[in-house]
Amino acid sequence: MEGELAKLEIATYTDSGYKTKVGSNAFNAFINPQSYSVRFKNNFDTKRSVGQQKDNYKYTSSDSPDLDLEFLFDGTGVVQQNSGNRLLNILSGGSDFVKETVKGQIDKFIKATGEYEGTIHKPYNVIISWGDFEFKGVLLELTIDYKMFTPDGKPLRAIGKAKFHESISPELAEAEAKSSSPDLTHTRMVKAGDTLPLMVERIYGDDKYYLEVARINNITSFRQLQPGTEIFFPPIEKVS
Q1: Which residues, in sequence order, are CB contacts of 194 under 8 Å at separation 6+?
Q2: pTM for the full model?
Q3: Using CA atoms, how far apart are residues 148 and 156, in angstroms rounded to an integer?
Q4: Tell me, what's the pLDDT at 228?
Q5: Where do the structural domains in the chain lie, given as residue ranges?
């Protein structure tokens, strides 16, 4: 639904090629993170020759990125279950708000991201998606800070600080490198909030080609795209 608040979702997979999905919405954040950070690192040979006074680093490798996320687990009942969709709230019981225990929310998160799964002998690989952001990897660390409690000691609010590390198979890494090339043909599905200049920028690294892409796809209103529509992006030499 247009205008509905997008919630962060975690989907689980058994493999680092992300071919065998266990659950599309293994975990849905009740409250979106206020921010997230992605950390990249390049490695260099830092050794100096005898008598060398200035550094001349030589590149050796790049590490896969890390993702740091903070999740707020709230059990006070002040969180809307279907934010932006009052009809769903009415159908689900006539209330805009849902109350789920902090323990229940944390158990779902750990089961999706960090719990050892005996059938595959490891925790699941996950795809974290929120709006246009997507991250494929595994959970490295999780720290939970409990903040509020009932009189009998049950937690009412907690903050989960999670660190994920990108983890994808060599085959998928090669496929993604090829699929990002502007010299190949691409088909993309429109998401809520997309405009044609934004989508063209993602594919070609420059939005100047959006009029040609609009012409090829017979698009007349490139700023009001219908979510779910597939758009064809030809190789860059065909639109330049």
Answers
A1: 225, 227
A2: 0.66
A3: 5
A4: 82
A5: 9-45+59-174, 181-238
